Amino acid sequence: MLKEMDFLPANTLGRLLGYKGIKLDRTTLIVHMRSVQAALDLTQCSEFAQLNERWYGSQLTLTLNNASQSIHFLKKQNAKDFAHVLNKQIAISFADYLSSLVATWESAVVTQYPRQAYLRELQQICSTISKGYKSDPATWNQFLSDDLIKQIKAIIQFHPVSYAALQHHHESIHLVKRKVFFDCVEANPLTDEQRLGVLRSDDFNMVLAAAGTGKTSVMVAKALDLIDRGLAKPEEILILAYNKAAANELKTRLERSSNKTGITLDKTPHISTFHSLGRQVLRDARISTYMSIFVEDPLKLKQWVTEWLLNYLSEDISRLVDFISLTPEPVDPFTIKTQAEYEAYVRDNELRTLNDELVKGYQELVIANFMHLNGIPYTYEARYVSKRRIEVGFDYTPDFHLDGTDIYIEHFGIDREGGTRPDIDAIKYNEEMKSKRALHIECGTTLVETFHYEWVEETLTSGLERKLKHLGIKFNPINSEQLLEQLQSTGKIANWCDLLLKALASIRVERLDYDGMLARFQHAKISQPQKYTVLLNALHEAYVQELKEQNTIDFDDMIIRSIDAIGQGLFTPKWTYVLVDEFQDISTARMDLVKAIIGRGPTPSLTVVGDDWQSIYRFSGGKLELTTRFDELVGNYTETKLQKTFRYNNSIADTAGQFIMENPEQYKKHIETHTKVDSSQVYLLDDKVGVKDGLYQRVVEVVSKIKSVDNNASIAVIGRYNYLLNESRAALAQNQLVQNISLWSFHKSKGLEADYCILIGFSQGKLGFPNENIDQAVIEALLPALDAYPHSEERRLLYVGLTRAKKKSYIIGNPTSPSAFITELLAPKYDVNIHSKTFQERYSKIFKCPNCETGYLKLLNGKFGSFYACSTGKGCRVGKARVCNECGAPSVDNRESSDCNNKDCGHSMKICEKCGRPMKLRNGKYGDFWGCSGYGIQDDQCRNIRKM
Fold it and tell me: Is the pLDDT reported for residue 342 higher than 60?
């Protein structure tokens, strides 16, 4: 037929115009025009030839390289037969072309997981096939094989292509095909969510796993699935673990699961920590990997920093003065908006002078240090010459008294218009200033006044110097050597070195240069940001130079320098699949290493696995926003949530989940548990308030109770601080209860589990839980950004602790000084078993300090008897309360009486409104009256009386 129909002549009109006809020569169609020939390559046809009848003759249209080309003036006779032969020939190459498109589609959609990077190409393939087939389905069905048509129809059903549809298609196929593998790869069949986490290999993938939902199982199964399906060789898979223990666990479980499923591994995937990988990269790049002595002996590093600091400060006296002004960090009290904020600031930030006094504010610290540096002896908050009360509830004590003189210094917190901190009544405060001035006039003492606005205008110390010299006070400045010696002997140099070590670690892990540090400090509104930047940049440059001189690296260099090596082409990554564990705690440097591997590798797929609810390592560089803002900071990704746990019951899951999701920055998850219970398994107990070592006695009681009903159970005591664990260990040992007992810090408990967990240390303050001592502002500025929700990282820490328990969680708290977490868990929305009368609301109110926002009153024994002290410390204006004579509860001073805080008691004792001493009922010639008990004190007699 081909020989008979290999030529189709032009019609009469065509011949008149110079056309002779067209000739088919295998894969070439030759167009004859007079003395010229045009050859069309039929293998370039992307559609079948179309024959159309026109008034001027037959017209044959071909599409070559996506461009249409028409041949006119053909003879109608035999035109259909010629077109049939032509399309049979086109079908040979066209089928190959379509088969290549189908193969690409099958590979990218069915064999491999669909990737968003290839979405546009897949949309083009589907559009091309769909458009061609739907334009002439009869011709396609006629000339293409049934198998190919079947494949084409399967593709065009996706038109227009959406990524979600491709995902669903791939997943539905392999959930069925890989069922046997998923059922047996781990000890228990994988959950539906785990199976999806294994299958999904988009460009970027995130597996969000709640505690106990089997994220390690997903990582192990994913690696084996890729190998078993031939998608990757073992050596093409990189698995990065957070630490060595996690890496070893992954290796062990991978080997166990490969044996269990019968998957033979001639090689194993590359499983390592970030530091181990970095060191291997450096070795392959032929860069020295000798470790610095600073890595092996941290004490050597501290010694080096100490020596550097002493040299740096001694080189220039101005540096020493500046450094003293920078530690602690300056804080403008007018930026503090509420009384609660101020109380927390004073309570949790130790403002200690060069003379080793604890003061209430930074500006008082400046004044005290100024006088110490100039050799002016003084006493902080000394008793005034007369026992008087200007403010309700406590005796007047001026800020400073110059020893051996009648000169006192009062620092007033006002601006030039008499304005005060937002939480202070400005009118009342200014009236009290007048009363203080009047008192000094009355008692014949000299009052030197300083003001907040002087500090703002940077004239506080210069103004004070002028005022004191006017009064004849002699200045005797101490020299720098003497000062440095004092700073060392009092431990301040050591404390400053600890701060510098933290700063250096943050600078390294966040990869900050001078501009980066300055920007961070300015953003955080750190006072004198340039001074901090100059100091820390000098430290960092000196440290880097020291490593160069040693020809060594530290842990940070393993990562930092490996990033550079990859970027310079000294090492070429070969991995096609990269898996990262504990992604919620990844640092900037580690993420930069991952990005370098992705950017310089063979377009690998990245899967990160983690739990934003368990991000607890910000202090070591953990950058949670890389998880919560992954799409902005890394790229579009496919998300899988693991929300079924086999560890704990629904009571623990609901309480822990509700608690952590109070923070709107956390991802929302709805945890399903394998174990169901009908009542709360989270218990709140008190720490036996008022009993010596009551907390540890309560731990012993709980452990004994657990063992009495479940003797073989595993039990863990979890504390925020090691001293709590050490004391608990001693108490348990004393009672022979150490068997099957683990003692973990909250941080170290991550990844562990026990049948029963006892959580301890829930009280207020810098050693409480939550830890309310925000780290130094400078360090905070250098660390990764923290979400704004109160105690956000501490909340995640409690979530970790709660979810270690399989059966029951016991929380032991201090009811007289309850932590913010205890107060929150007492709310009706939490289903918590309150097994303590002392935690009832009425009882808690007894110990609430009425003089501040957040403080609670704690019973202490002092030199002159028992009293209550406010947990807010110097942040509370009053700070203490009497002990009620009737019930022993706190008794709070008002102007004329001290009233018991226990409403059930209601006892009230009359006190003197002038000096605060108790009033006594006396009898005079005009009848009974109340007289001050200070009447008989010769040195400071109070003659105040009050009518009955």
Answer: yes
Residue 826 clears pLDDT 90, i.e. is over it: no
C-alpha dist (Å) from residue 853 to 342, 346, 410, 728 = 10, 13, 25, 32
- Contact between 435 and 390 under an 8 Å Cβ cutoff? The reply is yes
pLDDT tens figures, 621-678: 999 999 999 999 999 999 999 999 999 999 999 999 999 999 999 999 999 999 999 9
The answer to whether residues 132 and 80 touch, using CB atoms and an 8 Å cutoff, is no
DSSP 549-603: HHT-B-HHHHHHHHHHHHHTTSS----SEEEESSGGG--HHHHHHHHHHHHHSSS
Parallel, antiparallel, or unpaired for β 19-25 and 7-9? antiparallel
Extract the tokens encoding 145: 């094989």
DSSP letter for each residue of 41-74: EGGGBSS--EEEEETTEEEEEEEETTEEEEEEEE
Q: Name which of 617, 877, 623 is nearest 748 in CA terms.
A: 617
Q: 740 or 240: which carries more pLDDT confidence?
A: 240
Q: How confident is the model at residue 127 (pLDDT cuts 50, 70, 90)?
A: very high
Helix axes 529-550, 514-523, angle to 10 degrees: 150
Give percent above pLDDT 90 in the chain: 72
Structure tokens at 669: 């998850």
Q: For the residues 578-588, what does the mean pLDDT come to? A: 96
- 527 pLDDT exceeds 90? no
Q: What strand order describes the sheet that includes 270-273?
A: 270-273, 237-241, 577-580, 605-610, 204-209, 638-642
> What is the rounded distance in angstroms from the CA atom of residue 878 to the CA atom of residue 391?
9
Q: Give the full edge-to-edge strand order of the sheet including 28-33.
A: 7-9, 19-25, 28-33, 36-41
Contact 800, 211 (CB under 8 A): yes
Instruction: Say whether 862 sits in a helix, a strand or coil.
Output: strand
Q: How far apart are CA 311 and CA 177, in angstroms?
A: 69
- The rounded Cα 292 to chain-centroid distance in angstroms is 29
From residue 210, how far is each of 277, 309, 804 by CA, in Å?
27, 45, 12
Q: Torsion angle, CA of 760/764/766/768, rounded to 10 degrees?
A: 0
Q: Tokens 């070893």: give the residue.
A: 248
Judge contact between 71 and 22, C-beta under 8 A: yes
Contacts 24+ apart (CB under 8 A), 137-143: 139/48, 139/87, 140/48, 142/87, 143/48, 143/87, 143/88, 143/90, 143/91, 143/94, 143/95
- 938 CB contacts (<8 Å, ≥6 apart)? none
